[in-house]
Amino acid sequence: MFRRPLTIEYKDPEQIAKMRAAGLVVAHALAAMRDAVAPGVSTAKLDAIAEDVIRSAGAVPSFKGYLGFPASICASVNSQVVHAIPTAAQVLQEGDLISIDCGAILDGWHGDSAITVGVGEVARSLIHLATVAEDALWAGLAEAARGVRSGQGRLTDISRAIETSIKKAGGGRYGIVDGYGGHGIGTEMHQDPHVLNHGRPGRGPRLVPGLCLAIEPMITMGSPRTVELSDGWTVVTQDGSVAAHVEHTSALMDDGIWVLTAEDGGRSRLGPLVSSAAAAA
Fold it and tell me: Residue 181's closest CA among 192, 168, 167, 165?
């Protein structure tokens, strides 16, 4: 089977600093939306909040117009996994779980991040689902940091770390969505390489300084199988189970990782694995 060669865009420290600026715009937009999530709020309202924060910062929503996508965020509720289009008709209800994916372009550089948030009083099982996804994200970021520091890391080491974290926390209860995953990011939102959320370690490109990755676990409370709806965007679980999706944009540095869409650069979750560049910013 023929496979095209990967085209990876490696960044220098100055370019990574520009990506950090874009990442912070995304972080601020997500924080504003997190604060606004409540019963009775429509996903269109969340989209308007995101666009206002992004444009007020002098940035551009990277999702809006991308391959025809009509909004600034993806707002995926309950069984919607990713890419759901926000609308005035989709109003959040008590007990819902919403995944919000947001991107921004600033000075030609992209930031991309996602959060999963409970609406009002949420079942403990759904809170655990979101926590498992979040922990898996940070497990992947930590493995990337260890890999670049050792000089021995490979891309699929991140995939295995994510998978292991999910399986350990869930005892096999959670489905790891296939066909969707993380990606390279920089002057474009989606670049090589694709980052699977499962797989054997020790494969793929080396984890080296200048590699920027958006890492994004997606898990379900049932089958990992998904279906794309007739709108050509919204992806839902085939069995109707609830899903969670989280994401951060990160940059590999000589001495660790800089989580560009985390307000603190990743320090609170990764400690000494965070690059000195992040600590100094």
Answer: 192
Question: What is residue 234's three-state secondary structure?
Answer: coil
Q: What is the DSSP letter of 174?
A: S
Q: Are 34 and 115 in contact (CB under 8 A)?
A: yes
In this prediction, residue 171 carries a pLDDT of 78
What H or E segment, with its residue span, contains residue 272? none
| Six token digits for residue 157 | 């080491």
Which amino acid is located at 226 in the chain?
T
3-state SS of the chain: helix, strand, coil percent to 5?
A: 35, 25, 40
pLDDT, one tens digit per residue, over 187-225 is 999 999 999 999 999 999 999 999 999 999 999 999 999
Instruction: Outline where 59-197 has alpha helix (H).
Output: 124-150, 155-170
pTM above 0.90, yes or no: yes
Encoding tokens for residue 160?
Answer: 């295995």
Q: Please, how many CA atoms are within 13 Å of residue 189, restricted to the half-sphere of its CB?
A: 17
